[in-house]
Amino acid sequence: MITTKTYPNFLQKRLDYYERVVMPALNSEKSPFFLNVVPNEQSIFVDNNDYLSIGNHPEIIEAQITQLRLKDNSVMSSFFVSGKGPREQFEEMLAIHTHQEASILSTSGWDANTGLMQTIADKETHIYLDRMVHASIFIGAQLSGGIIHIFNHNDPDHLEKKLKEYGTGVVVVDSVYSSIGSICPLKDIVGIGKKHHCVVVVDESHSLGLYGKEGNGLVAQLELEDQVDFITASLSKTFCSRGGIIICSANFKNYFRHNSFPAIFSSIIQNHEAVRFIKTLDIIKKDEWRRELLHKNTAYLHDHLDYMGFNTEVSTSPIISLEVNNESKAILLRDLLVHKNIVTAPFIPPAVPKKRCNTRMTVNCSLTVSQMQHIVQSCKEVLPVVQLPKDEINCYREKHLPH
Ligand SMILES: Cc1ncc(COP(=O)(O)O)c(C=O)c1O
Description:
Blueprint: H1 9-25, E1 44-45, H2 58-69, H3 86-97, E2 102-106, H4 109-120, E3 126-130, H5 135-144, E4 147-151, H6 156-166, E5 169-174, H7 186-195, E6 199-203, H8 218-221, E7 230-234, E8 244-248, H9 250-259, H10 261-265, H11 271-286, H12 288-305, E9 319-323, H13 327-339, E10 342-343, E11 345-347, E12 358-362, H14 369-386, H15 390-400
Parallel strand pairs: 1-10, 3-4, 3-5, 5-6, 6-7
Antiparallel strand pairs: 2-8, 7-8, 9-12, 11-12
């Protein structure tokens, strides 16, 4: 028998409000991310971060299966792990690849960022965050108890103004911003951070594997390795699996294992997952052609979509967000594109500020020219619909997108 729950008032009223006010506003049946149309075989998937199209690479899957058969799959916190298994091997490989001393694996990019912030700041630390940094950095900064200052997106002058006002601390940016695809002016930001004797952290979730020699990232490409103190990344993007990484100094690694809550109180990834990362890194380094194609496809789509009317020109990266100015338009746009067999990912608050609502396309190296032509043509066709006034949009939805 299934039980229906009613919660105490302090919780129930939140759920009632969401059901009554938020869900209808989102114009959707179950949740904002409910797809009204089921993707089919012709669907073009630009909703994920498998930039180099290696998620289903047979060699990677084979390596993982072989490791699983070894039945060597302990699950414990990294605090207790010692020795030289696949996890340590991957950490060493990645550190060498990015020209740093050490790296620390974690179960997610979220854990990497929250664990790092918690261990490098406390209630006396000033923390300077770009307005668009990933939520995990923001929450990590809150967890640390530090004094948070937000500077305008990609605005080094505003950062410097804040540093002059409040003094040194920790500066955190993303190299490529996941919700709108803009690239951080890293040289300027890092330069200002260092001028003010700050600890500088760069989240390279959307640039590791895509930029730099053999995909060693934007920090390495810009030769900022000695100035950036910590690089973090989610391994669910180019590396296409569950995991996160902190790239750091050797002595920080020891300190982190004994002080970070995720390292002490949460289990580490398993050996077969680490083996997957080792094989994936091999392919990322070796298959330059994937990066070349990715950047070629990215340039093609930017050439055809920029200045069409979606504000895609804020990005030069493989993340292309089609911006509209409210939640229901972002969901409608996603639905309209699904109707044209293009599957995108909608971004609404709290992932982005309201006026930056969008549905996001992530370019990958397997897109064909005819698929990209179809994407461009479809964007042209749906643009006038999302520009309609609100009541006309509702009529349009009823008529053309019945549930
Ligand atoms: C920039 C950035 N940092 C961190 C994360 C969190 O990564 P994960 O999904 O592995 O927890 C993400 C993923 O959404 C991200 O885009």
